[in-house]
C-alpha cells in the first residue's frame, strides 16, 4: 500500500468557531497556519493541523469599535493569550475507520501549551491528488485554562455566564505532495 502525504492548503480551508453564553452566541473564523494528512492505501492514518491564533475574527459583531474590543479580549490572557501562544495544534494519534468516507480521529489538542486527548468524527473526500476533511470538534475551554466567566470557577454570573464548550466546524483541503 502506498503512503501519500497531503499538505493542507490554508487558502482553501476554513475553520468556523461558535461560543455560547446565556444570552446568545458569538461566531467567527480562525485560520490554519499549516498541516498535513498522511494516507495509506487511500485511508487516513495520521497528520496534524496548526492554527494561527492571531487570525481569529468575530463575524457577528458588526460595530468596528466593539469588534476590535472583543477581538482584543479574545487575544488576552482571559482567553487565548495570543501573544504568548501564537498557535494551537491538533496531532492525530489514532484513526478508526467508521465507513469508507467517515473516520473517528483522536489526538492531542494543544491550546496555550496545554494538551488533552480529544476525538471527533470527520468526513473525508479523496480524489487521488486532493482531499477534503470536514467535521465538528467540541472543546471544553476550561481544560486549557480559559476560565473567564465559567460557571465552574465563578459564582453568581447570572446572564454573563459563558458556556464552557465551544465548537470548531472545519472544512480542510489538502493536496498530495
From TrEMBL:
Annotated Lipid/polyisoprenoid-binding YceI-like domain residues: 5-175
Return the Pfam families for the record. Answer: YceI
Q: Give the residue range of the signal peptide.
A: none
* Classification via InterPro entries: Lipid/polyisoprenoid-bd_YceI, TTHA0802/YceI-like_sf
Question: Domain of life, per the record?
Answer: Bacteria
What PANTHER family does this protein map onto?
A: PROTEIN YCEI (PTHR34406:SF1)
The protein depicted here goes by the name YceI family protein
Q: What is the lineage of its organism?
A: Bacteria, Pseudomonadati, Bacteroidota, Flavobacteriia, Flavobacteriales
